[in-house]
Design goal:
The protein is of the alpha+beta class. It is 38% helix and 21% strand. The protein binds one RNA strand through helix 3, strand 6, strand 10, strand 11 and helix 12.
Length: 425
RNA sequence: GUGAGUGUAGCUCAAGGGCAGAGCACUGGACUGUGGCUCCAGGGGUUGGGGGUUCGAAACCCCUCACUCACCCCA
């Protein structure tokens, strides 16, 4: 084979592509019900934008971004996530002014240069919802509850919600110091990455899965014990709110978001059904991001859903949506040369009336035409021969039942009505 | 970036040093105004690629590429 798709990208063929689209529609509807409106964002941005927002010392920025330079000398990057773009756009168009509340969602491909594995691609898809301008914990609760309820309604297998607090600009540095002091004490027993991270990004150390580090990390100080009164209050309010809503969650002290901009509430939904990449949705509050990107003191909270992972889970659950069946209602088969123009005319008028129809022109033998119609999943086949041509009629046969009748082909709305209503399940 | 496993027809897989095969799929015919069944026939392969060992390699060795899973990281 001369050409094949680059590593880590996938062609999505029917019927999976159709289910994928339906799944996108479903998530879009979910966000719309919660008051979010769509924002269309560019696929590439200034590389600097991501470095500034996600964090210089994160893996995403350090080694996973597709960075390229243009003829004009700009350094751009394929977007590795959506929040940075969205906030940039909100600032650029003055949607993130202090005091203003804006609910926006996005959807589309993201790019990270990682080694592919189950649930991980180099081009993958996310849908994200971001609420800009509110610092109220009840907005955290609402956003989390919306996704958790949808997960439950669509029977996502063994899904669990994990919650933690990342503190704020006040208390996180204090906790950080306590944590670093603790880690330094056990420095000799930590793995090499953890030793390095103790200096560069100590909170990430909590995420380490290397066995030798586990005992140390298990008894590391919890961030929730060092929250300032405001952060404590916020987190308690979110916890109580979720309890009040009957949304089950697990307080996970070692849950840390991989992106630097998160503050306060951090949450993620995991499932054991997914393999090693178990997170299918995640999010959190990012009260410092807008300022970090040059805006005012505007808080935000948001989340993103990984579509490929959601797709897998819904497939396992048997709740994957499908295209309306059948996609094509009628296949028209001209039986002789003279009937071809007649076939075109009927097809055009039926399409005008919303009937999806294909022509079986290349199949000269009727048997082949029937086989092709079956293959395309159509419900009816329409036969046009000399009799139909002279009578202005069409013989329609319902493939499943074998029932057939010859009806007038005009006016098309009558034929369309017949097709829509006759023998419909 | 690291590691392990796997690469044979469109798909699922046989052949484990001695003729590259099966099932499904595909194409044609039996069958030119009525499909699904059946029967017959056919097209398809540099056995991922390159090198080596051997009289002989899909098989054994080396290199390489790809895929899968895991590490890492994350949605």
């Amino acid at each position: 084979m001369k050409f094949q798709a680059p590593r880590g990208v996938k062609d999505l063929l029917p019927p999976a592509s159709e289910s994928f689209r339906r799944l996108e529609d479903e998530i879009r509807a979910l966000f719309v019900l919660a008051g979010f409106r769509e924002i269309r964002l560019p696929i590439f941005e200034s590389a600097e934008l991501f470095a500034r927002s996600i964090g210089e010392s994160t893996d995403i920025v350090e080694k996973e971004m597709y960075v390229f330079s243009t003829k004009g000398g700009e350094t751009l990057a394929l977007r590795p996530e959506g929040t940075a773009s969205l906030i940039r756009a909100a600032l650029e168009h003055r949607l993130a002014d202090p005091g203003r509340i804006e609910r926006l969602y996005y959807q589309g491909p993201m790019f990270r240069h990682e080694r592919p594995q189950a649930g991980r691609l180099r081009q993958f898809h996310q849908a994200g919802a971001e609420l800009i301008g509110s610092s109220d914990p009840d907005d955290d609760v609402d956003l989390i509850a919306t996704v958790s309820r949808h997960a439950q309604a669509t029977s996502i297998p063994s899904s669990r919600l994990l919650i933690n607090s990342m503190g704020c600009a006040e208390c996180r540095p204090a906790y950080r110091e306590v944590l670093v002091r603790y880690l330094e004490k056990y420095r000799a027993d930590l793995c090499e990455t953890c030793r390095k991270r103790t200096e560069t990004n100590p909170l990430r150390v909590l995420d380490c899965k290397i066995p030798q580090c586990q005992p140390i990390l298990e008894s590391a100080p919890h961030i929730t014990d060092f929250l300032c009164p405001d952060s404590r209050n916020h987190f308690d309010h979110v916890s109580r709110g979720l309890e009040g809503e009957g949304i089950p969650f697990t307080l996970t002290h070692r849950l840390v978001r991989g992106l630097d901009y998160y503050t306060e509430t951090a949450f993620e939904w995991v499932s054991d059904a997914l393999g090693a990449q178990s997170t299918w949705a995640a999010g959190g509050r990012y009260n410092g991001l807008v300022r970090q990107l040059g805006g005012g003191d505007v808080p935000g909270v948001g989340l993103a859903i990984g579509f490929e992972r959601l797709f897998l889970l819904r497939e396992l659950a048997g709740t994957l949506p499908h295209f309306p069946d059948p996609a094509v209602l009628l296949a028209i088969h001209p039986l002789e040369e003279a009937a071809r123009p007649y076939a075109h005319r009927i097809m055009a008028s039926l399409r005008e009336h919303g009937i999806p129809v294909v022509g079986l022109f290349g199949k000269t033998r009727m048997k082949k035409a029937f086989v092709q119609a079956e293959r395309e999943g159509v419900r009816f086949i329409g036969l046009l021969g000399g009799d139909e041509l002279s009578g202005g009629t069409i013989t329609i046969k319902h493939l499943q039942s074998g029932i057939q009748k010859t009806v007038s082909a005009f006016p098309p709305e009558d034929l369309a009505k017949t097709l829509r209503e006759t023998w419909s399940p």
